[in-house]
Amino acid sequence: MASDDDANAAADVQEGENWRRKGKHDKPKPWDDDPTIDRWTVEKFDPSWNEGGLLEVSSFSTLFPQYREKYLQDAWPIVKGALKEFGVSCELNLVEGSMTVSTTRKTRDPYIILKARDLIKLLSRSVPAPQAIKVLNDEMNCDIIKIGSIIRNKERFVKRRERLLGPNLSTLKAIEILTGCYILVQGNTVAAMGSFKGLKQVRRVVEDCIKNIKHPVYHIKELLIKRELAKNPALATESWDRFLPNFKKKNVKQKKPNTKEKKQYTPFPPPQQPSKIDLELESGEFFLSDKKKSAKKWQEKLDKQSEKSEEKKRKREAAFVPPKENTQSTKTASDNNEIADITKSLKKKAKKFRNSEAQENVKIESYVASNEESLSKKKRKPSSM
Predict the structure, then answer these.
(1) How does DSSP classify residue 288?
(2) Which of 46, 112, 247, 260 is deepest in the core (most CB within 10 A)?
(3) Whole-angstrom Cα distance, residue 141 to residue 198?
(4) Rounded Cα gap, residues 82 and 120, in angstroms
(5) CA 206/CA 202 separation, integer angstroms
């Protein structure tokens, strides 16, 4: 019992020592709560930090396509001058079709060789030299997205790649503005340059487009909403899911392929077709002599020729046959026209007759009325006297 207690006590002491040793360096530092220090800033490299240089030579090389040879040959002095400022040597091998970058004794920044590797990768993927040189800056990063192996069907791949570009490259320009990245779609790769946050967004947009998960236009709408929400400091600590739209994928009904109806399976083979000799035996031609056979074939040939000649003659004569005139239809049409003209003339005459009667009635009535008035005046005059 005593030995067990001693052992437990020794273990407690050992644990306490370990705990003390573990928390020995967990002390508040004077710069932890300093508001003037921004821990997210990337400090520019100072050559005084590494005055001795690098101990080993590091080098990277990459191949480039033949159509880029002329452009790289013209732009190589610009690339060489940009790398010389950082103490990196570069070589363009036109025989092998490769570009090589390597460190020298003047190289002080150990990370610049990785930036130079990204530079030659971008140059081999058709990025212009003035744009590719920007990757040597600390704030600029690059990402090369391989889209050729995502989908096998070439037609679908081309269609979705065009969807990423948009009409007159409008979709690609919108993505560039919203993410703050330079994007170049070339062949089976998409080269992007920008900040880490922007590159992450670009990769998501590109992969979703090629995999047919979401159209780039929907991503653009989301990025626009996020940009507006970022301006409001009150929403900095809240979730933005309630503001973002939920785009549901619609299953469009496709046309069903025309499939042939399957024949009913039968284990028995089809009946054997009669051979040429069997048919001759049935018709009796097998027992005829060669002369009779040849005469029969010749007669059949003549019959076919005569039938064809008659058909051709009929076709030629058909062009000279006059079409039959439809006399009944023309007569009925002319009769109908005559009846219509007669009815119109009768209606006009009846109308004129009615108008003339009305005018006569009016004249007689006015004449009678005027006579009556004159008589009444004559009678009234002597009474007044």
Answers:
(1) S
(2) 112
(3) 10
(4) 12
(5) 6
Asked whether the beta carbons of 50 and 69 are under 8 A apart, the reply is no
Q: How far apart are the first and last CA of the chain?
A: 175
Tell me the C-alpha distance between 38 and 88, whole Å: 31
Give dist(CA 9, CA 162) in Å, integer.
74
The pairing of strands 98-103 and 59-63 is antiparallel
Chain-centroid distance, C-alpha 311? 57
Reduce the DSSP state of residue 31 to 3 states and report it.
coil
**The residue to which tokens 């219509």 are assigned:** 340
Q: Provide the total of helices (H) and of strands (E) in the chain, helices listed first.
A: 11, 6
Cα–Cα dist 162/168, whole Å:
10
Query: Residue 254 — φ and ψ, nearest 5°?
Result: -100, 155
> Which one, of 179, 198, 188, 209, lies nearest residue 145 by Cα?
188
Q: Is the separation of the CB atoms in 226 and 236 below 8 Å?
A: no
Which residue do the tokens 């002597």 mark? 382
* Whole-angstrom distance, CA of residue 308 vs CA of residue 296: 19
Distance CA 222, CA 176 (A): 14
Give this prediction's pTM: 0.56
Residues 57 and 115: their CA atoms lie apart, in Å, by: 15
Six-digit token pair at 123? 């140059």
pLDDT in tens, the chain (385 residues): 445 555 555 545 454 445 556 666 777 777 777 888 887 777 888 888 888 888 899 999 999 999 999 999 999 999 999 999 999 999 999 999 999 999 999 999 999 999 999 999 999 999 999 999 999 998 899 999 999 999 999 999 999 999 999 999 999 999 999 999 999 999 899 999 999 999 999 999 999 999 988 899 999 999 999 988 888 888 888 888 888 888 776 777 777 777 778 888 888 888 899 998 898 888 888 888 888 888 888 999 999 999 999 999 999 988 888 877 766 555 566 777 788 888 888 888 888 877 776 665 555 455 444 544 554 554 454 444 3
Distance CA 82, CA 118 (A): 14
Tokens of 172: 């690609």
Distance CA 217, CA 205 (A): 10
**172 and 166 Cβ atoms separated by less than 8 Å:** yes
Distance CA 206, CA 190 (A): 8
